[in-house]
Amino acid sequence: MNVQALPATKGNHNLLSYEETAANFDWSTVEKEFSWSTTGKVNMAFEAIDRHALSDKKDKVALYYSDAKRDEKYTFEQMSQMSNRAGNVLKSVGVEKGDRVFIFMPRSPELYFSVLGAIKLGAIVGPLFEAFMEGAVRDRLEDSAAKVLVTTPDLLERVPVGDLPNLETVFIIGDNVKEEGPIKDFNKLMQEASSQLEITWVDREDGLILHYTSGSTGKPKGVLHVHNAMLQHYQTARWVLDLQDDDVYWCTADPGWVTGTSYGIFGPWLCGVTNVIRGGRFSPQDWYETLQRYQVSVWYSAPTAFRMLMSAGDELVKQYDLSNIRHILSVGEPLNPEVVRWGSKVFDLRIHDTWWMTETGAQLICNYPCMDIKPGSMGRPIPGVKAAIIDDQGNELPPNRMGNLAIAKGWPSMMRTIWNNEEKYQSYFEIDGWYVSGDSAYMDEEGYFWFQGRIDDVIMTAGERVGPFEVESKLIEHPAVAEAGVIGKPDPVRGEIIKAFIALREGYEQSDELIEEIRNFVKKGLAAHAAPREIEFREKLPKTRSGKIMRRVLKAWELDLPTGDLSTMED
Ligand code: PRX
Predict the structure, then answer these.
(1) Is 306 helix (H, G, I), strand (E, B) or coil?
(2) Rounded to an integer, what distance in angstroms lies between the CA atom of residue 272 and that of residue 12?
(3) Residue 308: Cβ-neighbour burial (10 angstroms; 0-12, 13-18, 19+)
(4) Which residues neighbour 146 within 8 Å (Cβ) at sequence distance 6 or greater?
(5) Are 233 and 270 in contact (CB under 8 A)?
(6) Rounded CA gap, 564 and 529, in Å?
(7) Which of 386, 432, 477, 490 is most enclosed, with most CB atoms within 10 A?
(8) What is the CA(355)–ligand 1 centre distance, in A?
């Protein structure tokens, strides 16, 4: 491997020496940062917000929020009060410990108040990305048996309220809300609610958040995380994000995805750091302006966004004063060496790649300010965690051999179950002692990990994880579609795009209008980011004798690769 390593960053960093810390670290030392190590009573929202509201940080800005219409800020004390109000609103309709409270809306201060308010009651929060359409919303609310939903007037039409017997209350955040049946006016009730709330203390192993994510088969699965995850959210926010008291931090991820909660809510606030949230859609100008306006010092984003900024040109970035940025990080897909080099050129900083998954709850393999970076590598396991490359029998492979990227079971933020699907949960741990990630990778002689690809067919498009099965299921609901097979096709900006191969039913002719119609059908039924960008019609699709679409063969067709063993294919 012939890479030019970028030397460690200068400055005072929280993690001083990777080797030394990795050799000596023990998670029990992190517990002592929190009062619950002595009382045994824990609540994430208390540790993230109220703890600071009760300290000399109470007047420090916790949240800067802005979008095209709003421009607001909240101190830790105000965040504490607003989340207490939200907690009281939820309590008024009977929300209790363990209930699932789903939040389906674009970013707004109210989203954060509701998430924290629900957690204060010991409820389990289910964040839903705003782009989900009715089918996706239904699946998640049904599977989790959600009791309460917080949403907006625009999104309400995608919620099949009448079909969800467990859904008792729907709070609407909007103007002139007509209260009727299960519908309640959130803002009105917020005004009436008390800003005092008795927090519900829970056990460290009690449920905190339920993130639905895609696999290669079946419907999306609900990954459950517990309050104990805070140990790792906190410690990685210190070591990896390198958060320090005077930092202004911006994580660009939406809380509908795990990065937007673990590192858009929990990590930074556990450290008592000022958090920037920018609503609305991506645009290079808007993002650079946000970095400049708030004097962001630590910035956590994703390869697709960096690639889009890169293609917007270096002239644009030069128009902004971004001199406050001192640390940049990336997650979600492979970070190309080219992007790291671009970062060095325009920001004069290294971009630090981090690897983890919805299931892992927090960062696991990362690059640290105190460590040299090899562009293209995800870095090394965080102290206190063992990662390895193993074969299918669980043998650890020597350096430079490709295999399963696996993590020794039992890190603090590990998922605790897949909701309603213990069997699926167990399937991650079939090799004794290991969590098998589904990614393939190798480790070099110096212990750096290099991502190679997914072992299953999961697609990562623009940093979002899409299950081919969900898209195929939606496609075959369209009257023209007889069979559908979906793959990820490499793309220079988005990492991968979704490509669908379709066999039409008799009586249908292929046409550009039909392609557009099918694409919209998936957009409306599932989500815009799940709609195939490319559709190709085929007379027949490759299938196994048992009728399973062979995506591997579709991929080989697409990429002009050998198709491999076809012995299980039907004639
Ligand atoms: O394939 C890996 C890819 O994203 C998957 C996890 O997706 P999700 O659960 O949506 O979580 C994304 C953000 C935490 C992984 O199995 N992935 C994540 N980070 C990286 C990555 N691939 C390459 N490099 C990374 N740094």
Answers:
(1) helix
(2) 18
(3) middle
(4) 100, 101, 102, 126, 140, 164, 166, 167
(5) yes
(6) 31
(7) 386
(8) 6
What is the crossing angle of helices 109-120 and 76-91, to 10°? 70
Ligand 1, atom nearest to 359 Cα: 9
Residue 467 CA to ligand 1 center (angstroms) comes to: 13
The Cβ of residue 237 has, within 10 Å, a number of other Cβ atoms equal to 26
Spatial contact of 148 and 93, defined as CB atoms under 8 Å apart: yes
Contact present, 344 and 350 (Cβ < 8 Å): yes
Residue having the nearest C-alpha atom to atom 5 of ligand 1:
357
d(CA 307, CA 118): 36
For residue 451, how far is its CA from the centre of ligand 1 (angstroms)? 10
For residues 101 and 114, what is the distance between their CA atoms, to the nearest angstrom?
9
Cα–Cα separations (whole angstroms), residue 505 to 111, 212, 476, 481, 532:
44, 33, 10, 6, 19
User: Of ligand 1's atoms, which has the minimum distance to the CA of residue 438?
Assistant: 16
Reference 518, options 555, 476, 550, 554; nearest CA is: 476
AA letter at 178 = K
- Helix, strand or coil, per DSSP, at residue 34: coil
Q: Is 339 exposed, middle or buried (0-12, 13-18, 19+ CB in 10 A)?
A: buried
Question: Can you tell me the ipTM of this complex?
Answer: 0.99
Mutation probe of ligand 1 site: the residue of 254, 355, 407, 440 with most atoms within 8 A of C-beta: 355
Helices (H) and strands (E) in the chain, counts: 21, 26
The 10s digit of each residue's pLDDT in 235-285 is 999 999 999 999 999 999 999 999 999 999 999 999 999 999 999 999 999
Q: What percent of the chain has pLDDT over 90?
A: 90
* Nearest CA residue ID for atom 7, ligand 1: 357
Residue with CA nearest ligand 1 atom 21: 333
Mean pLDDT of 306-324: 96
For ligand 1, the distance from its centroid to the CA atom of residue 78, given in whole angstroms, is 34
The arithmetic mean of pLDDT across residues 491-512, rounded, is 95
Distance, CA 171 to ligand 1 centroid (Å)? 33
Radius of gyration of the chain (CA): 24
Give which of 218, 208, 212 is closest to 140, Cα–Cα.
212
Sign of CA dihedral 174, 124, 95, 139: positive
CA distance 354 to 366: 4
Atom of ligand 1 nearest to the CA of 354: 26
Q: Which backbone phi and psi does 246 adopt, to 5 degrees?
A: -95, 15
Residue 55, classified by CB atoms within 10 Å of its CB into exposed (0-12), middle (13-18) or buried (19+), is: exposed
